[in-house]
């Protein structure tokens, strides 16, 4: 069930992306349908929080420390948002962030970048847990544990510390109703390999997948590797973006009504409006993808009996910063 939930959450991230960038083509339409009033705004997270510096003295694994000397990536022409797919079961808990991606909008290069972060990356977690979670926090553990111990606030701090970039906010959603949301935009178009097509009972090549089949595609395992599976998840997200850009107003209304009530963010309605008004420009942007850790820069380790990835942060952080700037 944990893996199933993780992959549903990854698809849900794609729906967040599609809705925010394509739910309407004008501020008038947004106001008319009251879309932004459906979102749960988090006013407690997006605060002035300088990115940590002078971390070299922290007692952490050498692989983690290797990235601390890299300057923080900040560019006024680049917006970075953390997209979170969680398995939260109740309002009383944060749940695990089983899917995490950085959405980068670069207005200089006219590109949208999608970077997925493997949940089991071995990271340094700031000692800033929620009240009552102090006894659970480990200063070095897997990335998605930060969300369990401190929600989006601590997860953002952890990503900023380890990956040396400033995040402009987050969007979070659990995975309820995602199949209906995919169906609301008429499905997603995916290019299936021979092995993927065989596993789904389809023909190789371009296929239009409904919500249920898109979920099955994103969950495929045992035909290749974890890295290939996360690539499939990013393919679903990219297709959601492209299908959403092309969708009509009626489809967008259905999609918004199905999914927006389940979304939480600390990004202001004014900022979201700005992105929506910029939709005609974003629709012409190129979209590309990155997976971290990059190939050949990680090794499997066991911490308290849990599988985690120790990665070369110096190489991965440099690759991420270059990717966002290209």
The shape, in one word, is globular
Task: Give the radius of gyration.
Answer: 19 Å
CATH class: Alpha Beta
**What is the strand content?**
15-25%
- What summary fits the major beta sheet? 7 strands, mixed
CATH level-3 fold name: Aminopeptidase
| Low-pLDDT segments | 1-10, 24-28
The order of strands across the largest sheet is 1-10-7-2-3-4-11
- The strand count comes to 13
Straight-line N-to-C gap: 38 Å
Question: How many separate domains?
Answer: 1
Alpha plus pi helix count: 12
Helix content: 40-55%
Instruction: Please name the CATH architecture.
Output: 3-Layer(aba) Sandwich
Topology as a string of helices (H) and strands (E): HHEHEEEEEHEHEHEHHHEHHEEEH
Q: Which structural category do the helix and sheet elements fall into?
A: alpha/beta
CATH superfamily: LCP protein
How confident overall, as mean pLDDT?
Answer: 81
């Amino acid at each position: 069930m944990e893996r199933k939930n993780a992959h549903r959450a990854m698809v849900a991230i794609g729906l967040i992306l599609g809705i925010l960038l394509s739910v309407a083509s004008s501020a008038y339409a947004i106001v008319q349908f009251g879309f932004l009033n459906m979102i749960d705004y988090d006013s407690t997270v997006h605060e002035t929080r300088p990115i940590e510096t002078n971390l070299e003295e922290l007692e952490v694994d050498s692989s983690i420390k290797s990235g601390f000397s890299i300057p923080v990536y900040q560019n006024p022409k680049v917006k970075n948002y953390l997209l979170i797919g969680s398995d939260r079961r109740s309002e009383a808990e944060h749940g695990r962030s089983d899917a995490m991606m950085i959405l980068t909008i670069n207005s200089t290069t006219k590109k949208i970048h999608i970077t997925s972060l493997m949940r089991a990356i071995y990271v340094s977690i700031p000692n800033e847990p929620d009240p009552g979670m102090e006894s659970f926090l480990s200063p070095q553990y897997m990335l998605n544990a930060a969300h369990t111990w401190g929600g989006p606030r601590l997860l953002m701090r952890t990503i900023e510390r380890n990956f040396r970039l400033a995040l402009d906010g987050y969007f979070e959603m659990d995975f309820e109703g995602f199949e209906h949301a995919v169906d609301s935009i008429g499905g997603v178009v995916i290019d299936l390999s021979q092995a993927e097509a065989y596993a789904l009972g389809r023909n190789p090549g371009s296929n239009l997948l409904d919500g249920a089949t898109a979920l099955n595609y994103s969950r495929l395992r045992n035909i290749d590797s974890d890295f290939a599976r996360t690539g499939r998840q990013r393919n679903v997200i990219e297709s959601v973006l492209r299908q959403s850009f092309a969708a009509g107003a009626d489809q967008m209304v259905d999609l918004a009504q199905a999914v927006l009530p389940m979304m939480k963010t600390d990004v202001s309605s004014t900022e979201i409006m700005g992105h929506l008004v910029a939709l005609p420009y974003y629709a012409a942007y190129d979209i590309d993808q990155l997976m971290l850790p990059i190939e050949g820069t990680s090794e499997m380790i066991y911490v308290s009996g849990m599988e985690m990835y120790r990665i070369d942060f110096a190489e991965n952080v440099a690759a991420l910063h270059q990717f966002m700037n290209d």
